[in-house]
Amino acid sequence: MDQENKKNRREVFKIIESQKINGMNIPFYIVDVFAEKKYAGNQLAVFLGADTLSSEQMQKIAREINFAESTFITKLKPENSVAEIRIFTPEHEMKFAGHPIIGTSWVLMNKIFENQPEKIALSVPIGEIPIHQSGDLVWLQAAQPQFLDTFLAEDFLSFSNLKSVDFDDEFPIQEVTTGSAFVIVPIKNKKALENLILDKVKMNEWLHGHCKTNHRALYFYCLEETKLSSRMLYIEDNQIKEDAATGSASTCLQAFLLKYHSAEIQIVNHQGDFINRSSQIYFDGKLTENHFDIKIGGKTQFIAKGEWEV
């Protein structure tokens, strides 16, 4: 590492230590995650030195920046390449989310830790997540999945413009979780995926009536030959919102495909195409004797850094 980079990293740590004393400013970074180029993928704000912030302050900051998620680094052990983080949407705290973990890890490995480690560990509410960087891809290893209830395609006819022929009936519709739960919905082709329309009120009623966890979201996907495309839709602020790239949903989808499609999978999941935030989420998974080896990876693009006045 050149001397200028080392100097920059030392300055960041000085700011963090100073913040602990005066409680004024904390450094932050903005990155695009699962992005092959800038201004694509899913935006993320990463706040350092957040151990002095209350949960209420973190929530207000996440609401102010208004990205899908923001992360707050509450404990940092550079000598062990370990960090503890909390993840907030504009509305609530998450136990696990993929793009915040990938993006935060990239910031730590490439902007903060002086030794630029290839492997680190991030602690989140569901446990410790192993991370490694290979070239320009950062990979996380997901927890073992849980396969929850299955549903009928007819359920979705009541709150979407989908027809019975649009569903890929080779696969079930099922809620899956690796920390955050998603209802995985297989669609036959990309055209049906692109033209998807949902009724907010009826969708919200269905989600509250059928999902097993407090995290309620739909993950539609289609697998045409070797092209995997997906859309993640959920309700927040009384609106239907769409995520540009959803790492946690991708770990659930990878588990789903390992169980129902192939015991080994290496493929790129394309998300965000229909909202002009093209994202590529790399899958590398294997199912062996009921053990799921689930890894997702992605590229991260540096956008900006600054100081946040608390």
Query: Terminal Cα separation, in Å?
Result: 32 Å
| Mean pLDDT across all amino acids | 93
Order of secondary-structure elements:
HEEHEEEHEEEEHEEHHEEEHEEEE
Structural class: alpha+beta
- Counted by DSSP, the helix tally is 7
What report would you give on this structure?
With 310 residues, the protein is α+β, with helices and mostly antiparallel strands. It has two domains: 150 residues, Diaminopimelate Epimerase, Chain A, domain 1; 153 residues, Diaminopimelate Epimerase, Chain A, domain 1 (Roll). Helices cover 26% and strands 41% of the residues. It has seven helices and 18 strands. The protein has an 18-stranded mixed β-sheet that branches. A hairpin with a 2-residue loop joins strand 6 and strand 7. Helix 3 packs across helix 7. The longest helix is centred in the first third of the chain and has 20 residues. 42% of the residues are buried. The model has no long low-confidence stretch (mean pLDDT 93).
List the helices and strands and how they pair.
Blueprint: H1 3-22, E1 25-33, E2 42-47, H2 55-65, E3 69-77, E4 82-88, E5 93-94, H3 98-112, E6 119-124, E7 127-134, E8 137-141, E9 146-151, H4 153-157, E10 173-177, E11 181-186, H5 190-194, H6 200-210, E12 217-224, E13 227-236, E14 239-243, H7 247-260, E15 264-271, E16 279-288, E17 291-298, E18 300-309
